[in-house]
Amino acid sequence: MQATVRRATATDAPALARLNWRHRVEEGDQTVTPGTDRATFLDYFASWMADHVSTHLPFVAEVDGRLAGVAWLMLAERVPSPMRLDRRTGDVQSVYVVPELRGRGIGTALLDAVLHEARDRELEHVTVHSGTRAVSLYLRSGFRDGQRWFQWRPPAD
Fold first, then answer.
1. CA geometry: angle at 134 spanning 96 and 14, to 5°?
2. Mind listing the domains of the chain with CATH numbers?
């Protein structure tokens, strides 16, 4: 099994919407009823992705030509300071690997791609709010525990 990680494109929107639905509804808390029906969500997601193309960068992992996982890098600009005028940051969001392929390095490969993008964009730092299951992934990738969130800074050259 070889996983390939790449930046997602607009043509991936329907598949990303289905992965998000699977993650949040089909594998989520079964006692919670989703706020909208599946078809409405899938349509909305594609529009949302197009509207946020400059601030939310999706990365996908493919195995045998099918999407096996996704991770998003949300970009933001902080208020300038006298010490640093350009204060761009990122936030890792909605990392998901299909359950049948977990434990095979796909999450690590996705996070590596996200952090490579963060370094290329010279982001000041990257944060993530993690569920309990993924904490070890983020710590192995260089994030530091901030109690309820984790922060990563690019290594000094």
1. 10
2. 3-152 (3.40.630.30)
Angle, helices 13-21/38-51, rounded to nearest 10 degrees: 130
80-121 pLDDT, tens per residue? 999 989 899 999 999 999 999 999 999 999 999 999 999 999
- Tokens 């509804």 belong to 25
**10 close to 53: Cβ distance less than 8 angstroms:** yes
Q: Residue 139's closest CA among 123, 121, 151, 147?
A: 151
pLDDT tens digits, 73-84: 999 999 999 998
Dig out the tokens for 140 from the structure: 């192995």
By CB atoms closer than 10 A (0-12, 13-18, 19+), residue 91 is middle
Q: Which residues pair with 73 in a beta bridge?
A: 57, 92
